[in-house]
Amino acid sequence: MYKRIVREVDEEFRIKSVWKGYGCAGMAVWICSALFHSRDFWLTEYLDYFAACFLIFYAMFAGISFVFPWLQSSYNGKKVWAAIGTSIMLFFFGHVYSLLTDFDYGHNMFYCISASLITAGIYLFWFIREVSAGRGRRSLGALFLLIAIGLGSALFEILDFPPIFWTFDAHSLFHAATIPTPLLLAEFAILEAKYEQDLTKTRMGKEY
């Protein structure tokens, strides 16, 4: 995802840095997850949970940044954007501190699932608005599939069951389901960046 964003998204695109940050956060999460699942002790466990939680909160920030372009289009908008980002970051650090004080798996799951549902809701709101306005395009299909996989994979974390063939438990299937998500997200981000820039050029052409 990171490589594709760097290569295929124009430097002038309003949230290229946000998508690049998403890619970096994703890489950190996969590294921490691999460490935890191969060497399970308190430090790798904390790194796995905290990194995953950070990515979920970052995904919410990225969704807000993308769906509301006015946040990057004016000085006041940028102040609101910074305030939103700071608030999410402070909430995340407060959540981490509470877990370090008293690690509660259910408490962590509640906040992570809540943030995921908020993010899905933000994108669905935007998706319905675009479809209702007759602005259908290929990127919307990638987004719909991304949301479906994201919410579907979360069910594996909520609905536990005995391992299939004594091998594939719910958590392993959750990880398998998340494999295509960065690929779909990269496709969506690139297509939407090109769509927005083409739309801007068209509008500027009409003005002239």
Number of strands: 0
Distance between the termini: 37 Å
| Main beta-sheet strand count, sense and barrel state | none
Q: Per the principal axes of the C-alpha atoms, what is the gross shape?
A: globular
Overall pLDDT confidence: 92
Class based on secondary structure composition and strand pairing: mainly alpha
The percentage of residues in β strands lies in under 5%
Amount of helix:
over 70%
Low-confidence stretches: none
* Count, helices: 8
Radius of gyration over all CA atoms, rounded: 19 Å
Our count of domains comes out at 1
Could you walk me through the main structural features you see in this protein, from its secondary elements to its overall organization?
The protein is mainly alpha-helical. 80% of the residues lie in helices and 0% in strands. It has one domain (2-198). The chain has helices at 2-8, 16-38, 42-67, 75-101, 105-132, 138-158, 170-177, 181-207. Keywords: Golgi apparatus, GPI-anchor biosynthesis, Membrane, Signal, Transmembrane, Transmembrane helix.
List keywords for this structure.
single chain; 208 residues; mainly alpha
Q: What does this entry show, briefly?
A:
Helices cover 80% and strands 0% of the residues. It has 208 residues and is mostly helical. The chain has one domain (2-198).
